[in-house]
């Protein structure tokens, strides 16, 4: 590292980490991976370090900052909470660490405010909730509270009771899907213009969604260009894609604190696979709108494989294990958007949105 040979330093640390499970080595490996731009790999190494040394505040602080950098704010707060619990009293000799710790404290306090709101929550009079729906929302509140108290390595899962697992949905269950399908050519045109624009980096922050993903669009990689991320419009890209952005106003998208809505171009490079994984909440379904689909590409949900067709939506339950592959020699591009689960009535949706109001966590700095 002192000589500036970061790649060689990474190789040596990778070897050392394979030979012995040592928290300090993993911490150094996480730092190296971050400097190389491999945020998912850095998160993986930092999480392994925290597992070995759960009371080491530096490791938890690093894990929290890495997760925050990938946009995984719910998961970052869990690591920050542990860091705050075990932090030393005096960090005046490490000003950079002290500043990061203050940021961590702000995130932890934001979640404390959310927790207090959850305890004070009551269904609004005249909300239209049935007795069963009100009971389900109260159970959902308990689920959220249990999530907030979970350890730093447990994945956040926000599950609405009574929503049955599914694989694929019929697009007729969702309004305005045909309107978006009809805009396929316009969206494809905007995507192609965007990636050819000077100064536009098509690898824009693809990390954070799945541990094994990379931020490079090269062969064997997955990347994305976010237009709306966790409810926040990404002006750098959104301003150049008005036709694609218009679908955000057409679709029935959920507003789940720091989770949804999302709208982005997903680029799966040649020879790439996204390994099996699940999402974070069953209140939403995920829609794929294919723009560029070479041969030898596919998608599997719960053991059932299907194949994208340009101009035809594919909608699925991302809480069922799913994976994707591109065995072709060219990139596959789709637009991905969140949708409300069709079985949730408007009164339930309002209750879920109110309980998931974690805006303080997103604003805390």
The share of residues in extended strands comes to 15-25%
Q: Major sheet: size, sense and barrel closure?
A: 7 strands, antiparallel
Looking at CATH, the homologous superfamily of the largest domain is: Tetratricopeptide repeat domain
Return the domain count: 2
Low-confidence stretches: 204-219
The first-level CATH class name of the largest domain: Mainly Alpha
Helix residue percentage:
40-55%
Give a count of the beta strands, DSSP E runs of length 2 or more.
11
The CATH topology label of the largest domain is: Serine Threonine Protein Phosphatase 5, Tetratricopeptide repeat
Structural class: alpha+beta
Q: Using the 3D structure, state the CATH architecture of the largest domain.
A: Alpha Horseshoe
Which of globular, elongated, flat, extended, rod-shaped describes the shape? globular
Cα-to-Cα separation, first versus last residue: 31 Å
Averaged pLDDT, please?
91
- Using the CA coordinates, give the radius of gyration: 21 Å
Verbal overview:
With 365 residues, the protein is an alpha+beta fold. The chain folds into two domains: 1-162 and 345-365, Alpha Horseshoe (Serine Threonine Protein Phosphatase 5, Tetratricopeptide repeat); 168-343, Jelly Rolls, CATH 2.60.120.330. The protein has 13 helices and eleven strands. The chain has helices at residues 6-19, 23-35, 39-52, 57-69, 73-86, 95-120, 131-148, 177-181, 184-195, 235-238, 242-250, 346-355, 359-363, and strands at residues 168-169, 222-229, 232-233, 263-268, 272-277, 284-292, 297-301, 304-306, 314-316, 322-326, 332-340. The strands form two sheets. Strands 1-9-6-11-4-2-3 form a seven-stranded antiparallel sheet. Strands 5-10-7-8 form a four-stranded antiparallel sheet, with no helix packed on it. A hairpin with a 2-residue loop joins strand 7 and strand 8 (304-306). Helix 1 (6-19) runs antiparallel to helix 2 (23-35), helix 3 (39-52) runs antiparallel to helix 4 (57-69) and helix 7 runs parallel beside helix 12 (346-355). The longest helix is centred in the first third of the chain and has 26 residues, at 95-120. 41% of the residues are buried. Residues 204-219 have low confidence and may be disordered.
